[in-house]
Amino acid sequence: MSIKVVIQGAAGRMGKTLIRCILEEKVSGLQLAGAVDLWDAPDIGTDAGLAAGARKAGVLLTTDLAAVAPDADVIIDFTSHFGTAGNAERIAAWNTAWVIGTTGLADEETAEIQKAAKNVPVVMAGNMSLGVNLLCKLIEEAAKALYAKGYDIEIIERHHNQKKDAPSGTALMLGRAAAAGAGLDLKTSGMNGRSGMPGARKKEEIGFHAVRGGDIVGDHTVLLAGTGEMLEFSHRATSRETFAIGALNAAVWLVKQKPGLYSMNDVLGL
Ligand code: NAD
After folding, report:
1. What is the pTM of this model?
2. Are 10 and 244 in contact (CB under 8 A)?
3. Residue 260 C-alpha to ligand 1 middle, in angstroms?
4. pLDDT (tens digit per residue) in 165-213
5. Is 16 one of the annotated active-site residues of the chain?
6. Is 159 labeled as catalytic in the residue annotation?
7. Model pLDDT, residue 270
């Protein structure tokens, strides 16, 4: 029996990539059961596979999540922070597993997801790729070894010119990993960009720098800068397929789990 998947945000960059990957069976055992976006999205009412640039799916792009999600096994959500948080209560009531790739959620929006995770299994991750989740582990180790020896931690992220949130969800994941290794709290250590006269850098700062331009899929570099040397840890996404395949693998794993909030580390066994 195939796992029935609803793609929420189906007309977006990630939504289309997810639909293509399901139809091309990049991860096996999945069936596209619904494709949902907002009323003003292009191609509403047309075949979701064709709209994604793939073969005909036999599933129409719709605006009505309630019409497709209660009977599905899992919803994969790559939309916007308010859309994701706004659906938490009804997804919890439908009992449908929920993979969330959407980034930029405020603390009170994340609290809505945590509430839903009491009823349904949820995987939430700012980056679904194997490489970035492994990199987080390496950064935690590096920060543990080097922060106390005086190395400064800075994170530079680069994305396409349509990205709405900054710093990126991935940069924040890397920042949290660095903070955990260094024994810092990212809420007080995080520093978004610098301008004017911020003065000398405080030791406990973890700086974030967001570059936006062109069609960059997602580049992240973590610097550990000491005296006389600097380490650079970099990840470059060359295609959105790495996130989509990660999200589809998360869906396969998630439908077998009990309610709770999980990360990609749980999915990947890292
Ligand atoms: P996009 O703007 O191309 O697509 C988002 C789509 O969601 C749009 O079509 C929009 O109309 C739709 N949408 C917004 N609110 C909705 C709602 N309430 N219901 C239904 N549809 C809704 O953006 P994108 O590049 O596809 O990225 C989407 C999100 O995923 C962003 O938050 C981005 O940062 C995040 N992202 C995460 C990962 C990851 O690995 N976790 C990777 C890439 C992007």
Report:
1. 0.94
2. no
3. 23
4. 999 999 999 999 999 999 999 999 999 999 999 999 999 999 999 999 9
5. no
6. yes
7. 87
Could you read off the pLDDT of 68-93 as tens digits, one per residue?
999 999 999 999 999 999 999 999 99
Cα of 12 to ligand 1 centre, how many Å?
A: 6
- The CATH 3.40.50.720 domain(s) of the chain lie at 3-124+240-268
CB atoms under 10 Å from CB of 87, counted, come to 24
Ramachandran region of residue 91, left (φ > 0), alpha (ψ -120 to 50) or beta? alpha
- CB of 38 closer than 6 angstroms to any ligand 1 atom: yes
Q: What does CATH list as the number for 3-124+240-268?
A: 3.40.50.720
Which ligand 1 atom is the nearest neighbour of the CA of 104?
32
| CB of 14 sitting under 6 A from ligand 1 | yes
The pLDDT, as a whole number, for residue 225 is 98
Tokens of 143: 């920060």
Ligand 1 atom nearest 127 alpha carbon: 40
CATH topology of domain 130-237: Dihydrodipicolinate Reductase; domain 2 (3.30.360)
Ligand 1 pocket check for 103: Cβ under 6 Å: yes
